[in-house]
Amino acid sequence: MPAIQGSTAWISGAAQGIGLAVARELVAKGANVVMADLLDETKGQSLAADLCQLGAGTAVYDRVDVTDTASLHRSLVEKPQEAFGCCATIVVNNAGIVVNDDAGDAKIKSMMDVNMMAVMKGTQMAAEAIRSAGKKGVVINTASMGGLLPLPETQAYAASKWAVVGFSISCRPLKKSHGVRVNCVCPAMTQTPAVGTFFAKKFKEQDANHPLLKDQLLPEEVADAYIALIENDKLNSQAAAIMPQVSYLHNFDFVGVTMQGIQDGVKLPRRARL
Ligand SMILES: NC(=O)c1ccc[n+]([C@@H]2O[C@H](COP(=O)([O-])OP(=O)(O)OC[C@H]3O[C@@H](n4cnc5c(N)ncnc54)[C@H](O)[C@@H]3O)[C@@H](O)[C@H]2O)c1
């Protein structure tokens, strides 16, 4: 089991919600954490100071917009060295936003830049930094259950999260080439200030008694999955589905799924093969 105690971590979207819960768990387990977020510097430093009170590890705040590639590099690659004298060997690309499908091209593109492009760039930067330092590490990307299932309420957001899952489970070779495991977490609706609140409102508008509203996850429950994926060094290119009653590793048994499709799926007309 890789030790969290004494390790260096970097987390985006760490000022609230799921990212803050993951940062808290890591500091409680003795990690030194760079909390990266858009939130202003003074409030961010105060959050980091609160986490330092937990006693085991430490935290510093770094204000960054992850969609700016140079700033992302400075935060993810340079800040951990500057603050803790070590590259981040635990990297959590978690910052995410959600907009309505009719928000317009500019806002949809901004969402794709945060949810998808920054995750891919963050993973690649982390892998290069860890390899250059001659270390081993782990990257956890935040996707969503809306990246494993259809999410008709927000189709563009679903596209961004399917992209995170597809990217993360395709990073399997980085373990051999860079010594870096890449996994992703796919939470169901979680009580958080922005993304969670957006979906709670959306489902409430559909039906005040919508079943999804009854049993929402807490960020702390979701954070447990990040810790499990970090601590188990056998887990690589996995997607962890997190639902109110259970968390599990999603089964990407491609051969099995394809064979089942051939057996059970609706056959489409096709020309005969010669
Ligand atoms: N809450 C849910 O129901 C839910 C479910 C599945 C997945 N997720 C995903 O979990 C992740 C965390 O979301 P949350 O629910 O905790 O939401 P949240 O909005 O409460 O927190 C997101 C954090 O990301 C930060 N952020 C946004 N854009 C940024 C940028 N460009 N650069 C740096 N930081 C930025 C915000 O300032 C905020 O602190 C997101 O990727 C979200 O899509 C959330």
TrEMBL record:
<protein>
    <submittedName>
        <fullName>15-hydroxyprostaglandin dehydrogenase [NAD(+)]</fullName>
    </submittedName>
</protein>
<dbReference type="GO" id="GO:0016616">
    <property type="term" value="F:oxidoreductase activity, acting on the CH-OH group of donors, NAD or NADP as acceptor"/>
</dbReference>
<dbReference type="GO" id="GO:0005737">
    <property type="term" value="C:cytoplasm"/>
</dbReference>
<dbReference type="InterPro" id="IPR036291">
    <property type="entry name" value="NAD(P)-bd_dom_sf"/>
</dbReference>
<dbReference type="InterPro" id="IPR002347">
    <property type="entry name" value="SDR_fam"/>
</dbReference>
<dbReference type="Pfam" id="PF00106">
    <property type="entry name" value="adh_short"/>
</dbReference>
<keyword id="KW-0560">Oxidoreductase</keyword>
<comment type="similarity">
    <text>Belongs to the short-chain dehydrogenases/reductases (SDR) family.</text>
</comment>
